[in-house]
Input
Amino acid sequence: MPRLTDVTREARRTTIATSMLRVMQRSGWARLTMADVFAESGLSAGSVYSHFASKEALARYVVERAHRVLLDDLEAFGEQRTANGPVVTPAALTRWLVERLDARRAYLPAMAQLSTPGTVDPALTQAIEAHLAEIRAHLAAMLAPWSEHADAPTPTAAVDLAIAGIVTTARAFVIRTGADDAITVDGFLASLRVVVAED
Output
């Protein structure tokens, strides 16, 4: 049997990961089995197991890949905004993040399940927490110029509050789209503005 090239191997891993996410959308993480992944992907058990030893290993790959894509996109967004001059604001970052999530809406239910502590293996929960810490560090760096002019006791306090709001908003969007597939980014953000507006 011919050996897989790096490109072919990564394409095969992508096929397997996408198949797992589709199965999760239908049946959830708890009921997902590797046999479901074999059937969904059309690959043999040996082929799937040559890439992933278990559904937990496959989930770790999916989360790591999603994290890398988001981090790369976040860095590109920061570079673009820096090159164009204006300071990155929490509002701009929030809209950008919600739009990125919306672009991957089909996978949000599965990703929400994988990122809920206690629903998967401890190693995956730990990896997710490390990824979130890395994303928060990037957000903090991007918001540092904005924080110098924010209305808060210290720049650090302003950034911490902004990041908490951005992350909470992103999680709320994931949950909201699970309950109402018709919701739009503009509609979601408008609803937030209504409930936090001053009287």
